Amino acid sequence: MATQMIFLILCYLMAALPFGVIVTTVWGGDLDIRVSGSGNIGATNVARVYGWGLAGPVAALDIGKGLLPVTVARFLWPELGIWWPSLVALVAFVGHCYPVYLSFNGGKGVATGAGALLAVTMVPTLVAGAIWGAVLAWTGRASVAALVACLGLILFVSYWQPSALPVVLLLASGVVFSHLTNIGRLVKGQEKAVVSPVRMQRGGSSESGGNPLEQAPGGPNSPAPPMWTGVTKDPLDATIPPTDPGSG
User: Fold this and answer.
1) Of 5, 34, 52, 74, which one is least surrounded by beta carbons within 10 A?
2) Where are the chain's structural domains?
3) Chain centroid offset of residue 149 CA
4) Distance of alpha carbon 120 from its chain centroid, rounded?
């Protein structure tokens, strides 16, 4: 029992490592994510402030600090059943959300909770992760994606692995609690997107701000020459002086 208690303490201390702060401090600029964007230390705010080039590694590290301790716990104490890795998953989630290193002001726990659940109930978590990605791409809002993925995960676990439902319900409740401010902004229509929604990308050339005839076949950023090298003018534009019939 003492060994398991020490393991839980180490799990908390590892999960409390604020990788969002560490990565942006070492490889980012002068902006402190704790006072920039939403002020959150998670990957979503890192993406908002520094882009996905730094947010990707932060998300991977946050997933890892949930996945690693639960995997080790299952390997070292397989006889304890599902309650033990479930407890470790909860401790990792709490460590990320309430890190001792930052006066217990941490992230929202989505990535760390997902990593922990990958070691508890892999298939439902992977499916929920796919839903998270689809909803994020469609809406552009990570909070909406997280809440929808939590709902889907509860349904999938109820069908595939009911024994994991208690820990899933607890972690999903924790995610909802950590997103209360986001939910408030969603209700008010003030929640900002972290990626460009797919439905906005389908707006056509009017949103891209360019004439399609003046763009290369591969798009505005293509190195290929444009499809039309002449001057493109609107024939109905009244500012164009009329051509003198006798001049030709």
Assistant:
1) 5
2) 2-196
3) 11
4) 21
pLDDT in tens, 39-80: 899 999 999 899 989 999 999 999 999 999 999 999 999 999
Please report where in the chains the tokens 């980012």 appear, as a residue: 28
* CA distances, 146 to each of 61, 137, 156, 224, 240 (Å): 18, 12, 15, 40, 53
Query: End-to-end alpha-carbon separation of the chain, Å?
Result: 99
- Token match 């229509």: residue? 189
Distance CA 207, CA 242 (A): 31
pTM of the model: 0.78
Residues in the chain: 248
Write the CA distances from 75 to 61, 155, 171, integer angstroms. 21, 27, 22
Structure tokens, 206: 């009017």
Residue 89 has pLDDT above 90, yes or no: yes
- Contact criterion met (CB below 8 Å) for 90 and 83: no
Residues 6+ apart with CB under 8 A from 26: none
